[in-house]
C-alpha cells in the first residue's frame, strides 16, 4: 500500500504501520548515520517506522560471510566485531562497531551476500532496517535514494580508513574509541 504526502511516497508493508512510541529515538539514531544523515524528518520518520530492535547476546553471530541477509544495522548498545577467517586459521578483525555506528549498509543497497562475519562482542541492542522494507521506499522516492547512495559511496571509503585491523585468535574485549 502506498500513500503520498508532501511529495514523498510512503510504502507500507502489509500489516505494518509507523510505530510512534520510539520513532523519535529511532529517527535520531538514523540521522546520526552517514547514509541517512542528510534526509528530511519525514523521510527519517518513515524509515524509523520500518526499523526493528533486535537484542544480541555476547558471542552471538549476527550474520556470517556468505549469508543473504541484506539488512543495515545500527548498534544501539554494545560492541560488534566484523571479521573474516584467514588462511592461517586465525581471525582477521576488520572493525569493531560501537554504539551509534552502522554496519551492513552496502548489503542494504546491493543485496549481495555478506563479505564478512558480524559477531556480538558484548550483549546489547541493534536497530535493524531490512532491505525488503527499505528498497520499495527508496524506489518510490528517487531523490531520497540518490542522497543515500551518495552518502553510502562516500562513507565506504571513510569507514575503511577508520577501521581497526589486526590478526588475532582472540581480539580484545573492548577496543579504544576513536
The biggest sheet, with number of strands, parallel, antiparallel or mixed sense and barrel status, is: 5 strands, antiparallel
Number of distinct helices: 5
Instruction: Assign the structural class, choosing from mainly alpha, mainly beta, alpha/beta, alpha+beta, or little secondary structure.
Output: alpha+beta
Number of strands: 11
Helix coverage percent: 25-40%
Radius of gyration in whole Å, from Cα?
A: 17 Å
Low-confidence parts: 1-21, 156-178
Could you tell me how far the N terminus lies from the C terminus, measured between alpha carbons in angstroms?
A: 43 Å
Mean pLDDT: 76
Question: Overview of this structure, please?
Answer:
The protein has five helices and eleven strands. By secondary structure, it is an alpha+beta fold. The strands form three sheets. Strands 4-9-6-7-11 form a five-stranded antiparallel β-sheet, with no helix packed on it. It has a four-stranded antiparallel β-sheet with strand order 3-10-5-8. Strands 1-2 form a two-stranded antiparallel ribbon. A hairpin with a 5-residue loop joins strand 6 (about 80-85) and strand 7. Helix 1 (about 25-30) crosses helix 2. It is globular, with a radius of gyration of 17 Å.
Descriptive tags:
178 residues; 5-stranded antiparallel β-sheet; 4-stranded antiparallel β-sheet; 5 helices; disordered C terminus
Summarize the structure.
This protein has helices spanning 23-31, 41-50, 105-110, 131-140, 142-162, and strands at 2-5, 8-11, 52-56, 61-63, 71-77, 80-85, 91-97, 102-103, 117-120, 124-130, 166-168.
Amino acid at each position: 500500500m502506498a500513500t503520498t504526502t508532501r511529495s514523498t511516497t510512503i510504502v507500507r508493508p502489509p500489516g505494518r504501520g509507523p510505530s510512534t512510541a520510539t520513532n523519535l529515538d529511532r529517527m535520531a539514531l538514523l540521522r546520526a548515520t552517514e547514509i541517512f544523515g542528510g534526509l528530511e524528518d519525514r523521510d527519517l520518520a518513515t524509515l524509523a517506522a520500518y526499523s526493528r530492535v533486535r537484542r544480541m547476546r555476547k558471542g552471538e553471530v549476527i550474520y556470517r560471510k556468505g549469508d543473504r541477509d541484506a539488512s543495515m544495522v545500527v548498534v544501539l548498545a554494545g560492541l560488534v566485531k566484523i571479521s573474516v577467517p584467514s588462511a592461517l586459521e586465525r581471525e582477521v578483525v576488520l572493525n569493531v562497531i560501537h554504539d551509534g555506528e552502522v554496519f551492513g549498509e552496502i548489503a542494504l543497497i546491493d543485496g549481495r551476500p555478506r563479505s564478512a562475519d558480524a559477531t556480538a562482542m558484548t550483549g546489547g541492542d541493534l536497530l535493524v532496517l531490512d532491505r525488503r522494507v527499505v528498497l520499495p521506499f527508496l524506489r518510490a522516492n528517487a531523490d531520497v535514494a540518490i542522497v543515500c547512495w551518495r552518502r553510502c559511496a562516500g562513507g565506504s571509503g571513510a569507514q575503511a580508513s577508520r577501521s581497526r585491523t589486526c590478526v588475532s585468535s582472540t581480539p580484545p574485549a573492548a577496543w579504544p574509541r576513536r
